[in-house]
Design a protein that fits this description.
Layout (H helix, E strand, L loop, with lengths): L2 H15 L10 H13 L3 H10 L10 H13 L15 H15 L6 H19 L4 H14 L5 H10 L3 H15 L15 H11 L11 E3 L5 E3 L1 H14 L4 H17 L4
Helix pairs in contact: 1-2, 1-3, 6-7, 6-8, 7-9, 9-10, 11-12
Length: 270
């Protein structure tokens, strides 16, 4: 982890979880690079809180022009909206199971809203990871919920749900990211039976690469002559991402890739 990445995680951890450690002095260029990562990962609010927590730290030598830019960005920023509404799994069978779990739990005599919330966060994170890569904002919200309401979560029930959805390892990977870069202890995350060693490497890679990884790019299109063209770069990127997560959610990863492929074909203009 280089100095930019170290300061990034120190400030984000401070803003999200009130952790505090020593900030290292950086050049204006490196602070600019860090700010680009902040915007790319959609963690500006955590960054600003972290900066405020270090307000009296002489090592926090943010350039004046960058501070001004951050203030303007905050004025423009809309309130965060909940992202768990309308989240679905790509695999049809698993998606039916997922929504049946939600329905049955909401209509049971011992409904655990907190356990459902954790499940929704894990599924939302899974959806984001398979379509765009790791989203730190979503991972942080999972961590915050665990810290705030983890004592009310029925982890035995959650384990059964994750097993039926074949998402145990994907959930374990998400929890391992919280342990690897956000300072969580293993005993805070009951669904992490064994830490996933790749969690640290995946997270560092995602903040090192500021190339936009989006599912919104075209997969196939029809040219003026009527022939179908494919976006080889996009297909390779999706395939690499799917390969990366295939061991953590085999059924969902495969279905996600196939559905994306079919969706791309269906969008060809006739």
């Amino acid at each position: 982890m280089d100095i930019i990445q170290r300061n990034f995680f120190k400030l984000i951890r401070s803003g999200a979880f009130d952790d505090k450690s020593i900030i290292e002095v950086m050049s204006p260029f490196k602070w600019r690079r860090l700010y680009e990562i902040v915007l790319f990962q959609n963690v500006l609010d955590y960054f600003v809180r972290g900066v405020n927590n270090y307000a009296n730290d002489k090592n926090l030598n943010l350039p004046a022009e960058l501070i001004e830019e951050i203030q303007k960005k905050l004025d423009q920023q809309e309130e965060r909206k909940a992202t768990d509404n309308g989240i679905n799994l790509s695999n049809g069978l698993l998606n039916k199971k997922y929504h049946k779990i939600i329905y049955n739990e909401l209509h049971s005599i011992d409904t655990s809203v907190e356990t459902l919330d954790i499940l929704k966060l894990i599924v939302s994170n899974t959806n984001a990871m398979l379509n765009h890569g790791i989203n730190l904002d979503s991972i942080i919200r999972l961590g915050q919920y665990l810290r705030k309401k983890g004592d009310k979560v029925d982890f035995l029930k959650l384990e059964g749900w994750l097993s039926s959805l074949h998402l145990q390892r994907m959930a374990q990977l998400q929890g391992s990211i919280l342990i690897a870069v956000f300072g969580f202890e293993k005993d805070e995350i009951d669904f992490v039976k064994k830490e996933e060693p790749i969690a640290y490497k995946l997270t560092i890679k995602i903040i090192s690469n500021l190339v936009k990884d989006t599912a919104g790019e075209w997969h196939f299109r029809q040219n003026s002559a009527g022939f179908v063209q494919n976006n080889g770069k996009m297909l390779r990127r999706n395939l690499r991402r799917s390969y990366k997560y295939i061991n953590y959610a085999p059924l969902e990863t495969t279905s996600n890739f196939i559905n994306g492929f079919i969706r791309g074909l269906s969008e060809i203009e006739e």
